[in-house]
């Protein structure tokens, strides 16, 4: 049994921590939000004393600045030299590398291990992990990652996990835009959208986004569109991930025009619809009434 300090019990972190607890690990859940703590049995505010007792510290936080603050002020000052560090947040590559360098300077093994699979994957322990960091740290922490995920890929040194996540989610954002624009055109042309979905799902237009985020209510009963676009994966999070991809592309001098357009449009839409599933952008494309 591993003693784990899990910091960040939100939409993803809470179910991930529960999966680890159900797998037999001693999980100390921590969050600054009283609401998040109330949803996890025995949760506490982030505590240096508790971190000093942990074998592993896992962070799942909204942005790079949150991860940096927690590691600088709480994790590294209180963790023991044997403590292993895993950051499952989706943050920028440069912050990840800086965190890894600071951890290494104090003798900690650290992984960046962002995830894909959404709340459903977190609940069922079927997430995909994109991992960066030393091989030794990867092997030491692999059993924990396998408890939370069904697909774990070690991409290389520190920062490689975040690089893979940024590239992956840019593809997701561009694909989502293509799916929504295709359905908007089909709708404007008067096609039967259930028949159009059946065509696409069995043809070259097939994709995970099509089958899981079909933007037409009632066509795919399990999609957020069939539940008034209730997340799902919130628009503000998709917009954030696409901005991270653009930051990485800019740093490398790589042109990504479709990714840039998706980042721009989703960020603008998130200003007023940030808590809706990202597929709600379809309403904007079709200029449909929005009661949310």
Descriptive account of the structure:
The protein is an alpha/beta fold and 292 residues long. It has two domains: 3-157, NAD(P)-binding Rossmann-like Domain (Rossmann fold, 3-Layer(aba) Sandwich); 163-286, N-(1-d-carboxylethyl)-l-norvaline Dehydrogenase, domain 2 (Orthogonal Bundle), CATH 1.10.1040.10. Helix content is 52%, strand content 13%. The protein has helices spanning 13-22, 34-38, 48-51, 64-78, 93-105, 118-124, 135-148, 160-188, 193-201, 208-212, 235-252, 257-273, 281-286, and strands spanning 3-7, 26-30, 56-59, 84-87, 109-112, 115-116, 127-132, 149-156. The strands form two sheets. Strands 2-1-3-4-5 form a five-stranded parallel β-sheet, with helices on both faces. It has a three-stranded mixed β-sheet with strand order 6-7-8. Helix 8 (160-188) crosses helix 11. It starts with a strand and ends in a 6-residue tail after the last helix. The model has no long low-confidence stretch (mean pLDDT 95).
Give the biggest beta sheet: 5 strands, parallel
Give the fraction of residues assigned to helices: 40-55%
Arithmetic mean pLDDT: 95
CATH superfamily of the largest domain: NAD(P)-binding Rossmann-like Domain
- What best-fitting shape do the alpha-carbon axes yield? globular
Structural domains: how many: 2
- Our estimate of the beta-strand percent is 5-15%
Order of strands, main sheet, comes to 2-1-3-4-5
Number of DSSP strands? 8
CATH fold title of the largest domain: Rossmann fold
The succession of helices and strands, N to C, reads EHEHHEHEHEEHEHEHHHHHH
Name the CATH architecture of the largest domain: 3-Layer(aba) Sandwich
Structural class: alpha/beta
Which consecutive residue ranges, at least 5 long each, have pLDDT under 50?
Answer: none
The termini sit apart by 45 Å
The first-level CATH class name of the largest domain: Alpha Beta
Number of helices: 13
- The whole-angstrom Rg is 20 Å
């Amino acid at each position: 049994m591993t003693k784990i300090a899990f910091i960040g019990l939100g939409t993803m972190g809470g179910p991930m921590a529960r999966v680890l607890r159900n797998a037999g690990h001693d999980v100390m859940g921590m969050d600054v939000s009283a609401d998040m703590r109330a949803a996890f049995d025995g949760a506490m505010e982030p505590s240096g004393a508790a971190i000093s007792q942990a074998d592993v510290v896992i962070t799942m936080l909204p942005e790079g600045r949150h991860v940096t603050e927690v590691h600088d002020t709480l994790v590294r000052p209180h963790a023991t030299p044997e403590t292993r560090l895993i950051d499952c947040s989706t943050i920028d590559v440069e912050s990840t590398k800086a965190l890894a360098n600071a951890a290494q300077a104090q003798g900690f093994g650290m992984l960046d291990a962002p995830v894909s699979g959404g709340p459903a994957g977190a609940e069922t322990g079927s997430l995909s992990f994109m991992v960066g960091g030393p091989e030794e740290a990867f092997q030491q922490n692999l059993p924990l990652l396998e408890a939370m995920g069904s697909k774990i890929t070690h991409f290389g040194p520190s920062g490689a996990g975040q690089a893979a996540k940024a590239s992956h989610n840019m593809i997701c954002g561009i694909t989502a835009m293509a799916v929504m624009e295709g359905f908007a055109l089909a709708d404007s042309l008067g096609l039967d959208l259930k028949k159009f979905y059946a065509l696409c799902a069995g043809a070259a237009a097939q994709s995970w986004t099509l089958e899981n985020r079909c933007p037409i209510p009632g066509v795919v009963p399990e999609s957020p569109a069939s539940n008034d676009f209730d997340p799902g994966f919130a628009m503000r999070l998709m917009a954030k991930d696409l901005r991270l991809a653009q930051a990485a592309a800019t740093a490398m001098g790589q042109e990504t025009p479709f990714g840039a357009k998706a980042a721009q449009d989703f960020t603008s839409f998130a200003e007023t619809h940030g808590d809706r599933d990202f597929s709600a952008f379809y309403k904007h494309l079709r200029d449909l009434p929005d009661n949310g």
